[in-house]
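User: Quick one: structure for sequence A, then sequence B.

Assistant: Sequence A:
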Amino acid sequence: MGSGHYFWAILYFASLCSASLANNAKINFREKEKKVLDQILGAGKYDARIRPSGINGTANKPTNVEVNMFLRSISKIDDYKMEYSVQLTFREQWTDERLKFDDIQGRLKYLTLTEANRVWMPDLFFSNEKEGHFHNIIMPNVYIRIFPNGSVLYSIRISLTLACPMNLKLYPLDRQICSLRMASYGWTTNDLVFLWKEGDPVQVVKNLHLPRFTLEKFLTDYCNSKTNTGEYSCLKVDLLFKREFSYYLIQIYIPCCMLVIVSWVSFWLDQGAVPARVSLGVTTLLTMATQTSGINASLPPVSYTKAIDVWTGVCLTFVFGALLEFALVNYASRSDMHKENMKKKRRDLEQASLDAASDLLDTDSNATFAMKPLVRHPGDPLALEKRLQCEVHMQAPKRPNCCKTWLSKFPTRSKRIDVISRITFPLVFALFNLVYWSTYLFREEEDE
């Protein structure tokens, strides 16, 4: 029994010693991290003002900085201000030989910092930025990772409002290219070079939703710039946006078509319904003008003609033409009434003269008249005139004109103008639609 108690006592003591050693090892590991940070970033050991050496530690080569980013969201694309807002996670990675440390046989993968001023940082800036801010909720969204081989990874979440010059000639059937440009502010290409990270330098969040646009694709490129102070490294991302046409079809094109068609209703109203036709024409004209001004209010004043300007201008012309058509119909109606009154007066005068002649015959029934001879001499001019009339009546009848025959069904000029307008206005508007859509849709395909 004594030997058994002795065995269990030794086993218990050994387990306590092993636990104590494990805890000491863990504490020593964290202390090792602190010692490494103090060793590489301690006072007098690291100067953040001096840029790292080039490739393989060469002092006369530029520092290469690899860049990649993750597009989290694109909140808006403003046509009037020609800008867009984006939120992204921006990353830079470079090698600083001065930051190498012992990884303790792979147990220390990297060191994490939250203070960017502790190490050297590339002087990158966004050249087409208008506004920007960092995110500090709950803590600053930034970190720096230092790897055992001296590689440094800098990651930060930022929101930017960037300029995006737009060409609105095909608006709203257009595509826009908005760029994100990054360049070095002070270091020339002799000291600092930005490179896109190999593989997948730009990542976009899945199910990216934009209210009026669709992100079709994006392209990465280089855009080094030369000034009188030297050449500076530059990177850019071109985002290709396609405008969603369904919104404009429902909000602009269909209402404009309806207004034009409503203005044609006046062609079917009676020419005497002056208040109805005038009210209809003026109302549609003012509504169309309001629609046009509302469209232009959301767009910048540009020196060229946009596709939407052509559409609204032609629709406004058709509505105005319908109002002018009624003015022409009203003038023709009054002219027809004046001619009818003149004919009536002429008929009344002829009837009055006939009545006077008949009264004269009745009062002087016994009077004698010289009878005209029944046979005319060959040289008689009256006989020649009668013969010519007979020859005219004996000529072959001309082929009737179908248009004149159809228009002859409408005795007044005002009615004819209305009937012609009922056919002409829809046909011309349909022809305009054919030319408009074939032209701008074909140009859109060319831009692709």
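Sequence B:
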Amino acid sequence: MGSVPRTLELFYDVLSPYSWLAFEVLCRYKNIWNVSLQLQPTLIGGIMRDSGNQPPAMLPRKAVYMRSDVRLLSQHLQVPIHFPKDFFSVILKKGSLTAMRFLTAVKMEHPEMLEKVSRELWMRVWSRDEDITEPPSILAAAEKAGMSMEQAQELLKRVSTPQVKNQLKETTEAACKYGAFGLPITVAHLHDETHMLFGSDRMELLAYLLGAWGGAMVPGQLWGKLEKPLLFLCCTSFLLGLALLGIRPDITPVAYFLLSLGGFFLLGCLLACFLEWGSRSVQTESPGASSNARDNEAFEVPTYVEATVTEPQPQPHPQELDQPPSYSSIVIPPGLEEGQPNHPEEPRRARLDRRVGSEGSVTSASPRRPPVSLRLRWSRAASTVPDLQTLWTTPRLEPLTPPPAYEVSCDHSDDDVFYGNNWTPP
């Protein structure tokens, strides 16, 4: 009865919190939308260098917004995200090269474990502030996800092999060919057409492309909205008809008309219920869904094991005032002579332009005029740009759903994700 599933590819990196949000939404709705979800581990550092983009945390205003945005989205989608205490070291310096190579090896050898191992790595770095770069950390994450220690050790040995490196490189290059400039991206293959959607906030558009009545953020179905109004009209018509029969027997035709109208509304309500049930059955039924125990149920949020996140202690650290540039020389336009009165009809001619130069000099635009001595006497301004190192010490986020407990710690010397002149392919 079910239609052939459509294909969605999710390109992601465990360094990206937005990738985690998109990952969870797609895992929850893949059966509802009847789609075949293909997870594609990708290296975000390669995409950044190929596109010339830079992480949002490198810009102060984007960094402040990102923290607030991720906090609200994690509450809304019930994904337990906590920012690492040493954000710049964990995310921008250590990177995720070893972790993404390991996930690539998992996909090649044990694809059925890719979803669980990916979620466990996200839990470590974005929920419990644990390492994901050292081999013991990755082994602990794999074991926590349900993989045997022998399997995990064998996959870890393959991380440095050319097969795994080339596969991660090909996946990253494929994302770049789709037009990626960051992660996550969702690539939908529908009716011989390909659509690339960036970010975790395009689920309404994805539901539209899939023709889904109810999406991750889309309200209930049309037929479900009609049930209550039709039921209300049905009850009202029946009550009015019965009341008229009891009070005024001489207007029996009107009473019968209202009773008939009530019956019509009742049939409409039953038809709406049937159509809603039928549309949900078509969307949720997919080949092999009943035999796959890992498939998420409709609208089901994964159960996370509670994790303890310690609140970082604020470090006293006086913020230095940004010194403004030296005050500039001022250029006087040629038409503005000394002592010449200002004319209302020519206000722009009297405008003075600031140019970077030494303090205390004025230069005339006319070479015949001698320089005039001038001292500018206004107070210097202190920068209000927030200190980047203090952006990540705000109080911790308590998630709506307790996070799962996973443990580990890591670092890799060649995992240079955001820095360096040239990107070395994985």
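The radius of gyration is 32 Å. The chain has a mean pLDDT of 74.

User: Thanks, that's what I needed.
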